[in-house]
Amino acid sequence: MTNSGRNIQSLQAQSHTPWVGVHVLTEFIFCPRAGLITFETKQEDDDNDDRELQGQQKAQLTYRPYYSLRPIEESLEKALNDLRRLPKLAGGTALVSFLLLLLTGALQAWLLALVIPALILIFGTFNAYPRISYFGKLRDMARKALPREPDPQSVDNTAINWWSLLAAGFDSVPYRDTLKDHSWRVAGKPWRVLRKGSLRIPVWRRRGEAENQAKIRGQHYARMAAYCRLIEKAEGGSSPYGIILFGNSYDGIAIANNQGSRSAFHKGLREARQVIKGKQRWERDPSPPSTGTICSSCPLGKPFTYRPGESDNRPGRLNTSPHLAFGDDGRAYHSECGDRFQWIPPHQKAFAKRLIKY
């Protein structure tokens, strides 16, 4: 048996082997401490976009990006109908105001007859036209996309457009249930799967990142290879590549499911199992990252104000004592990673608040 074959054979799970989710796996590759926190808090592997989109909409006050033509056309038609109803609504208000004028002769009725219908038309139009423009452009983008898909034989990454993939004949299918590979005890669920013939292409989204800002790292190659394996096991098709969409855009990249991607997946799975085993058997925590740049923007190490009761009872929080640090403003701060491992992660906000001195 070759070294490659022996390495694959070593990934076969035993009865005591812990289940590792794809999201948990990628967190371990990013940082063993982040992976262990994610594993211990039992965060579900679910790339469904509903929760993240709700958060992004509140923060950015933008429209939800749709990924099929039908809801775009329905939203456009609704905006057009809202605009068409404005004259009727304004006319009805003017008629009621005129009847009041006849009955009362009050000056206020004249104002109602003139001002309120005008306001209805102005504000209704102001609300409808941006939606008509947005969904109209989106519909045209979807309809006019040229068919284009990655070469399944390519070992290189390829830039893609979502609408071009659908124009090329792919069907977009969301998974309802988590996929499980019992032989390796790996589980996960991509955001979508594109199906065309025997091809089964996993799709997930990099939240909050535009294409020109996103960097493809080792954990992303591993994640894609893991999804490809899960889909091939579940459906029996071929997954020669997977797709990442960037932020709220329709642009992304196809990552080849080549030997490099699979090696990153296999290596990450072994290391995740080792850290989990070390914790479960010997209460051994992983060491801090060797470089502080990993922690600089990690959400688990981001400090937040300590509020007795509220901070201690956040959903999903581990039952650990808060590790407090005081900033120059006199407030107490802590973080998820800091509480779990009783330290102050070198997050950029920790330096900004002087929790860590330069």
Q: Please, could you describe this protein's structure?
A:
This protein is of the alpha+beta class and 358 residues long. Helix content is 47%, strand content 13%. Strands 2-9-8-7-6-3 form a 6-stranded mixed β-sheet. A 3-stranded mixed β-sheet has the order 1-5-4. Strands 10-12-11 form a 3-stranded antiparallel β-sheet. The chain is flat and about 75 Å long.
Note the main attributes of this structure.
single chain, 358 residues, alpha+beta, 6-stranded mixed sheet, 3-stranded mixed sheet, 11 helices, flat
Summarize the structure.
This protein is an alpha+beta fold and 358 residues long. It has 11 helices and 12 strands.
Mean pLDDT rating: 83
Q: Which consecutive residue ranges, at least 5 long each, have pLDDT under 50? A: 48-62
Strand and helix order: HEHHHHHEHEEEEEHEEHEEEHH
State the separation between the terminal residues, measured CA to CA.
Answer: 53 Å
Helix content: 40-55%
Q: Quickly count the helices.
A: 11
- Order of strands across the widest beta sheet? 2-9-8-7-6-3
The counted number of beta strands is 12
Describe the SSE topology.
Elements: H1 3-9, E1 20-21, H2 22-30, H3 32-40, H4 50-60, H5 69-104, H6 107-144, E2 158-161, H7 162-167, E3 171-173, E4 179-181, E5 186-188, E6 192-196, E7 199-206, H8 218-235, E8 241-246, E9 251-256, H9 259-282, E10 304-305, E11 325-326, E12 332-334, H10 336-341, H11 348-352
Parallel strand pairs: 1-5, 7-8
Antiparallel strand pairs: 2-9, 3-6, 4-5, 6-7, 8-9, 10-12, 11-12
Helix pairs in contact: 2-3, 2-8, 2-9, 3-9, 5-6, 8-9
